[in-house]
Amino acid sequence: MTIAFEAIREDFGAVVTGADLRQELAPECFRQIYDGLIRHGLLIFRDQGLEPNQEIAFARRFNRIRIYIGNDKTKMKGHPEINLLGNATDENGEPIAFQNKVGIEWHTDGTGFSHPPVSTVLYCVAAPSKGGETLFASGKRAWDELPEDRKQQFAPLKVRYSYEGLFKKLTSASDASKTDLTEDERVRTPDVVHPLVRTHSVTGHKALWFTEAEMACVEGLTSDESQALGKEIVGHISKPDYVYAHAWKPGDLLIWDNRQMHHSTTPYTYESEVRLMHRISGEGDETPY
Questions:
Q1: 200 in a structural domain
Q2: Shortest CA distance to 103 belongs to which of 277, 265, 276?
Q3: Which of 69, 134, 190, 240 is the most exposed place for a label (fewest CB within 10 A)?
Q4: What pLDDT was estimated at residue 246?
């Protein structure tokens, strides 16, 4: 198996060839892919006809898998590691997946957890002919290109994140029947505080690392000040020339390094077609610093 990486941009992203994810990856092949993930931030595998157990096995090579608290109806039956995303329904017309109708919503996965995921895996089962893209941008580039005065202002800042708040916002904007966590779920997901500027534990590079929708506040700032700063940060991260839009095809598998990448949904414009994605996210072994 000869693995190669074809860069899609200068700042991040590569298409991987020579890897059949239906097969267990030999240690040297996995090391090439892991090194490529760190180097490129986002990896794209085309034409992967995967079964759920194969998706899970691949994702588990990068970090422990997190089984998310919340709507069990949108977890795959028999495989709770996989969250179903999109507008797919069952034979009775009942939704089986979580459809985010918010539109553009930039974030990095896991800011509301004490040990965020190293990576997230997203696999396409069905895609509309138009729409449903996922947007990606580099927090490393966003940091590198900040004016020096902003770097000095941002470097010491800490952000308080609320998973409960994010859960309520997203489920309220979808067709989910459950929009509030139970008391036990709230106890298991307390607010956490993380740095706005994260240091990559492998490369040492710094990156803006932020989720506006999950932010409760920036420590030491008022609510209004926090909201204004959040909008400035997102506006910088998502400058048009920073963004790659991935148009999905069935069999695409994408994995990204959450220590350096941001991503976003796009508006829900494909009501007459089916989109179904399998999402697997992890639990890292480090606290962001």
A1: yes
A2: 265
A3: 240
A4: 98
CATH code assigned at 173: 3.60.130.10
Which amino acid type is present at position 280? I
Interatomic CA distance for residues 26 and 40, integer angstroms? 21
Average pLDDT, the chain: 93
User: Tens digit of pLDDT for each residue in 142-197?
Assistant: 999 999 999 999 999 999 998 876 777 666 655 655 567 777 677 677 899 999 99
Distance, CA of 218 to CA of 120 (rounded, Å): 25
pLDDT on residue 164: 78
Beta bridge partners of 29: none
CA distances for 167 relative to 89, 100, 145, 193, 214, angstroms:
22, 12, 32, 17, 8
Determine the Cα–Cα distance for residues 266 and 256; give it in Å rounded to an integer.
Answer: 18
Beta strands in 220-275 (DSSP E): 243-246, 253-257, 261-264
Residues 6+ apart with CB under 8 A from 60: none
How many domains does one find in the chain? 1
Query: Sign of torsion, CA 138 140 141 147?
Result: positive
Question: Is 36 contained in some domain?
Answer: yes
Three-class secondary structure of residue 223 per DSSP: helix
In this prediction, residue 17 carries a pLDDT of 97
Tokens linked to 45:
């595998």
Confirm if 29 and 60 have CB atoms less than 8 A apart.
Answer: no
Residue type at position 62: F
Reading phi first (left if > 0) and then psi (alpha if -120 to 50, else beta), residue 244 is in: beta
Domain containing residue 115: 4-283
Could you tell me the pTM of the whole model? 0.92
